[in-house]
Amino acid sequence: MTNVNLAVIFYSMGGTNYQLAQWAAEGGKEAGAEVKILKIPELAPQSVVEGNAVWKATTEKIAHIPEAKSEDLEWADAYIFSVPTRFGNVPSQLKQFFDIQGGLWAQGKMVNKVVSAMSSAQNSHGGQEATILSLYTSMYHWGAIIAAPGYTDPITFAAGGNPYGTSVSVDQNGKMVEDVEAAVKYQAKRTVTVAEWVKKGQQ
Ligand SMILES: Cc1cc2nc3c(=O)[nH]c(=O)nc-3n(C[C@H](O)[C@H](O)[C@H](O)COP(=O)(O)O)c2cc1C
User: Fold this and answer.
1) Digit-coded pLDDT (tens) for 35-46
2) In 15-112, which residue ranges form alpha helices assigned H by DSSP?
């Protein structure tokens, strides 16, 4: 058992990142953390969401998941973000969520939080790495500590070898191409472990 609080925060239009987040939550729990799984609030107009069958279905599927709030960022010792790649970058929904955390940031509340990120894209080289690195840029501004998987376990190679964070591609039907479940769980465990070290070091 650990005393680490982990917030797994995702945005998903087609369900992929919701699944990645669920695996991360499982991995975090297996590592002994208290885990909250949270979604990034939607910004797209309701009419647009409802006009897309997949998007609408995902929205209904995640309706029970609470939206991430500043208090969750304060509560957690560690964050795992999972977001789809949008034109090689994070979705605007996530950026907006970051952009309304200025108050928390000004109080230094995100300093020394341990973070890692995951992403998906349609193509196997469609920008997942760029998305994760772009997300990490904001984390440097928060004073967070990035606990990327690197090549700290052979599992990273088996999942496609992205050292920045687990990433996956999806086929035309929105199904994941690579099997990344074990890599996601490993990434979550590593994030929790590093957060535990950081917490202990501050006591
Ligand atoms: C506006 C938009 C931009 C996208 N840009 C990219 C891209 O740059 N590269 C890529 O391979 N896929 C791109 N995609 C596909 C998404 O990354 C893919 O549908 C997503 O990763 C699936 O995750 P989800 O099921 O959690 O929504 C884009 C999709 C949308 C809607």
Assistant:
1) 999 999 999 999
2) 16-30, 46-50, 53-61, 70-75, 92-99, 102-106
> How large a percentage of the chain has pLDDT more than 70?
100
> Is 15 a pocket residue for ligand 1 (Cβ < 6 Å)?
yes
**Residue 185, both tokens:** 């769980």
CA dihedral 11, 15, 16, 21 (to 10 degrees): 60
CA distance 123 to 125: 5
Verify whether ligand 1 is closer than 6 Å to residue 193 (CB atom): no
Return the bridge partners of 107, or none.
none
Asked if residue 128 has its Cβ within 6 Å of ligand 1, the reply is no
- CB neighbourhood size of 19 (10 A): 19
**Does residue 1 register a pLDDT over 70?**
no
The closest-lying atom of ligand 1 relative to the alpha carbon of residue 13 is 27
Which residues, at least 6 apart from 133, have a Cβ–Cβ distance to it below 8 Å? 164
Locus of tokens 């029970």:
64
Average pLDDT of the residues of the chain: 97
For residue 5, the surrounding DSSP H or E stretch is strand 5-10
The reply to whether ligand 1 has any atom less than 6 angstroms from the CB of 126 is yes
